Amino acid sequence: MFRVARASQYLAITGGGIDDIKLSKKSWVFPWQSCTVFDVSPVNYTFKVQAMSAEKLPFVLPAVFTIGPRVDNTEALILYARLISPHDKESNHVNELVEGVIEGETRVLAAAMTMEEIFRGTKEFKKEVFDKVQLELDQFGLVIYNANVKQLVDVPGHEYFSYLGQKTQMEAANQARIDVAEAKMKGEIGSKERTGLTLQNAAKIDAESKIIAMQRQGEGTKEEIKVKSEVKVFENQKEADVAKANAELAMKKAAWTKDAKVAEVEATKAVALREAELQTQVEKMNALTRTEKLKAEFLSKASVEYETKVQEANWELYKKQKQAEAVLYEKQKQAEARKAEADAAFYAKQKEAEGLVALASAQGTYLKTLLGAVENDYSCLRDFLMINNGVYQEIAKTNAIAIKDLQPKISVWNQGGEQGIGGGSGSGNGMKEIAGLYKMLPPVLDTVYEQTGMQPPAWIGTLSK
Question: Which residues form a coiled coil (predicted)?
């Protein structure tokens, strides 16, 4: 069965083919394996830890810890799956386990610190508790995601923090009264000081104002004379500038008139030149248009011819491919048929060979039985087999057929007396044998001629008809 875990879940698989525990988000689970789904989302644990400081003053430390499995460490996750996942995360077993670890480390740490150190160093105390508890939770594969340590609370019957709060409140009230009296005294002294400084500053400002007024009056007269002189100089300079400007204006007017006439002539020529250039460009564009039109026509025609030839070539190629595929298919089928025939012939030969082997085995057994019956007399066995298989009958029949159509012709040759050859009895014996050989040739040659129709060579002689 294929199992898939959710985003906050893991599969813990054990059984055949797995040495320890296999963790996965999705996997096949076989019948010889066991699969457990466990959630890895963190859980909030709220505690009120009762501890005692170094002065043996009891107190209550409210705390909220967000704890969950360490998902970024495979070994820690395996520890969690082995030790914690069989239980519900919010069950009393897990809650007591986590609470026991936190209470034990908090009490050990608080016993080594005074109440003042715990109260003033809450941040350091929280960090120490966090680190100590994390060390203990590592052996269960757990990690602290967040730890919130609230304010210390008195144990009923031991109102240390209440008395401390009252003390602080009274000290603050007394300090406030002192601060109010000091502020009132400083206010009255400051008010008198401000009044005296105001009168002194007013007299000083009046004197400085008179001095500044006289200075301003003298400077005004001096500035008036200076301004009149500058005005006169400026007027004379302006008159000279006007005369110079009139002269320059006359010269510029003459230059402008000249430039206007030259510009008019240049404009006329430029217009004519521009018209010629535009006419040339128009003619070039017309020629280019006609060229492009011809190119487009030729290109279109060439493209059509090319496409036609490509289609024809593709069609020829397609036909040749199909023909080749048909030939190949036919060859393959022929090869398959030949292979089937060969397999059939081989199978027939194999069966025939098996039949021959079986027949030979049966015949061997039969011969052994017959040989035992005739007491190992091979001659008797041979005669029995030839008679039983009709060998003698076949031999007789064959001989009869062989001589059936023969018409034997018996020739008798008389060799005459043998005394006239040689004359003697010693050396004449050899001549007799030679004479007998020559006497034997005529009947042999005659028989050959009668049986085959072949004449002897001319150098031997001619047979009489």
Answer: none
